[in-house]
UniProtKB/TrEMBL annotation:
Keywords: Amino-acid biosynthesis, Histidine biosynthesis, Hydrolase, Methionine biosynthesis, Multifunctional enzyme, NADP, One-carbon metabolism, Oxidoreductase, Purine biosynthesis. InterPro entries: Aminoacid_DH-like_N_sf, NAD(P)-bd_dom_sf, THF_DH/CycHdrlase, THF_DH/CycHdrlase_cat_dom, THF_DH/CycHdrlase_CS, THF_DH/CycHdrlase_NAD-bd_dom. HAMAP family: THF_DHG_CYH. GO terms for biological process: L-histidine biosynthetic process; methionine biosynthetic process; purine nucleotide biosynthetic process; tetrahydrofolate interconversion. One of its GO terms (molecular function) is methenyltetrahydrofolate cyclohydrolase activity. The lineage of its organism: Bacteria, Pseudomonadati, Pseudomonadota, Gammaproteobacteria, Salinisphaerales. This is Bifunctional protein FolD. Residues 11-126 form the Tetrahydrofolate dehydrogenase/cyclohydrolase catalytic domain. Residues 145-292 form the Tetrahydrofolate dehydrogenase/cyclohydrolase NAD(P)-binding domain. CDD domains: NAD_bind_m-THF_DH_Cyclohyd.
Length: 303
């Protein structure tokens, strides 16, 4: 008798993201040396949410490492909406700023929708503006939201580009992750199911998935017995939980990793999976936005 000791391949988002950032770095080098253009990314953070501050710090570090300019705006938690809209207007008109990212969610006095609508669609490196989401769903080639783009790149890498005909189940239907990812996987000719909090018998729906993506925001929500043997599992969740020792917090995903890794064919860890890809894709989008604004062809960045 054989016992099943198969464990999933660990999808190394950290390494794949580093490759993307290295290519972006070479593209930036060419833009600077051949055209005198240095891409600039502005990041706006309202309030002092500690998790958001970590992302903003990582983004700043990696933007500078890629040779781009980083402009950071930290606004007080009770900044009125009008003041944020004025800042966005200035960034829209600033020729040194090629990409604008306003960290979401925003405090309650500010409407996310109003802020996203105020960003120049050509500088919308998050791909959240309705002009860009409309273009995405109409088959165009706008900036694509960074986290879904990162997920689709991880899947292409893991499955050798062979996504066509596979059944992808995405748990979560946010504008940031679930909905745009459904579009990208549809483009790859997956059969796509979007599940959410009203889905009936979610474990049974998940068990049909050749590709299972969890973007729920609940620690270890997806269990091992929800997973079809051999499936590719992408864990988007970033949850900070107590790690048992005094006041220490650790990061866990939306998937119960150990259980899932015993059944899946491949799985992303948290941290080190989707998170680093999100930032790499943001830098990629910033290079593309810069080239579009300057009427330049995107350099190949081949090393
Ligand atoms: N790694 C990265 O780069 C990023 C990670 N994240 C992380 O990904 C996770 C999801 O983020 P985001 O999409 O913004 O989250 P949202 O809170 O906007 O959306 C969560 C989705 O999960 C669904 N959901 C909630 N509870 C259940 C349930 N019991 N059963 C089935 N579905 C459920 C909701 O359904 P309904 O619509 O019905 O309410 C909703 O569609 C979070 O952990 C976030 O921190 C987010 C962005 C980037
Ligand atoms: N306008 C906007 N665009 C976003 O793309 C956006 C946003 N708002 N709000 C918040 C979410 C979340 N998000 C992450 C980015 C990187 C990591 C990341 O680098 N994670 C590391 C760990 C970092 C850590 O230790 O916290 C990892 O998973 O390995 C995580 C989460 C982008 N988001």
């Amino acid at each position: 008798m054989t016992t099943n000791t198969t464990t999933a391949t660990r999808i190394d988002g950290k390494a794949i993201a580093a490759d993307i950032r290295a290519r972006v770095g070479r593209q930036v080098h060419t833009l600077v040396s051949d055209h005198g253009v240095t891409p600039g990314l502005a990041v706006v953070l309202v309030g002092e949410d500690s998790a958001s501050q970590v992302y903003v710090r990582n983004k700043r570090k990696q933007t500078l490492e890629a040779g781009m300019q980083s402009f950071e705006h930290n606004l007080d938690i009770d900044t009125p909406q009008a003041e944020l809209l004025e800042l966005i207007d200035r960034l829209n008109r600033d020729p040194a700023v090629n990409g604008i990212l306003v960290q979401l969610p925003l405090p309650e006095q500010i409407s996310d929708a109003a802020v996203i609508a105020a960003i120049d669609p050509d500088k919308d490196v998050d791909g959240f503006h309705e002009v860009n989401t409309g273009r995405l769903w109409s088959g165009g080639n706008p900036p694509v939201p960074c986290t879904p783009l990162g997920c689709s790149l991880l899947l292409k890498h893991t499955l050798d580009g062979d996504l066509a005909g596979r059944h992808a189940v995405i748990v979560g239907r946010s504008n940031i992750v679930g909905k745009p990812l459904a579009n990208l996987l549809l483009r790859e000719n997956c059969t796509v199911t979007i599940a959410h909090s009203k889905t009936r018998d979610l474990p049974a729906v998940c068990r049909q998935a050749d590709i299972l993506v969890a973007a729920v925001g609940r620690p270890k929500f997806v269990r091992g017995d929800w997973i079809k043997p051999g499936a590719a599992v992408i864990d988007v969740g970033i949850n900070r939980v107590d790690d048992g020792s005094e006041g220490k917090r650790k990061l866990v995903g939306d998937v119960a990793f150990d259980e899932a890794a015993a059944v899946a064919g491949a799985i992303t860890p948290v941290p080190g999976g989707v998170g680093p890809m999100t930032i790499a894709c943001l830098l990629h989008n910033t290079v593309h936005a810069t080239c579009a604004q300057k009427g330049l062809t995107v350099p190949s960045g081949e090393g």
